[in-house]
User: What shape does this take?
Amino acid sequence: MEDRLSSPSMFIGVQGKGIISFGSGQPDLPPPRQVYSILPTYRAFKYGLVQGQENLRKALSKGYKGSKASNFVITNGASEALDLSFRVMKPRDKVLIHAPYYYTYPHLVAKAFLTPVFTETHEGKIVLEDFDKKVRECKAVLINSPSNPTGRIQDIKTLKEIEKITTDLNVTLISDEVYKDLIYERENYMLSGSHVVTINSFSKTFSMCGFRVGYLYSNDPSFVERIVNLKTYTSMNTNILAQEMAYEATKVPKKYSSSQLKIWKERRNLIYNGLTELGLDLWKPEGAFYVLPKIKEPRKFVWKLFKKYKTITYLGEWFGAPNRVRFSYALDASKIEEGLKRVRKCLKEL
Assistant: This one.
């Protein structure tokens, strides 16, 4: 029964005839053709640099004003970048996270022998009064904007205030920006400063999830050095073929992202309007590709929708939102429309 819904692991990678998945946040759009261009001739299969291949780090530095290749570490997805960032902190330190949050965050923090502290949000937006009160007991803050699972972006005024507060308190500010190129309402505002650690990957922007190429950027040399030292004793170098393909992705014109953003926005409107018409209470996403509607008896809903209607969704409680269910709309419009029909039938039964 629905008590089997212990974590998203039971749904990750699940496929089959007739299954529609609003679960995993994996873009269905193809990667840019350029990333495959090196495959017929690529022959370098030796160990790579632990910090990451220099050509990729140099290419990334062009997108961060005043940075150098030495400011970057190439990691096994953004997940490893986050994991390493927490594990170089002192045990028992506290890390402030805004809820709802990506489901791995509290676990990564806890497995680094740190303590997660949660700050309030209103309709997915950080409440500064609560943030300012709780951050004073913390050594690090984790910001995710646009957010998984809410699809919300934090207001620029709020982000600037967070920059100032964390600077004044000498608190490390970790910014998970894997969805920074998927914003519908405005340009991305990049948090900056000597205390800021920027996390990103090629998974969402370039539909390269399975390649597992992420990176972190910091202009604090000592922080980068600690990360590289730890990575030396854990995963060593990130896959060098995948890095070379990521390097090719850095050459892709901006219009590639712009054209894909148009598709994501159309899908956002389709699922938001569809769920609203079903009478569900949800916030309109401003970025990423997730919605988080309120659902009565969410565990029964998720289980029944999967077992009877072959449609996957994720429990909101996994993301710190117990009365909600997360839908990813990283699938084509026809599947979204069919999925909405199944959701309607399931809701009627419940």
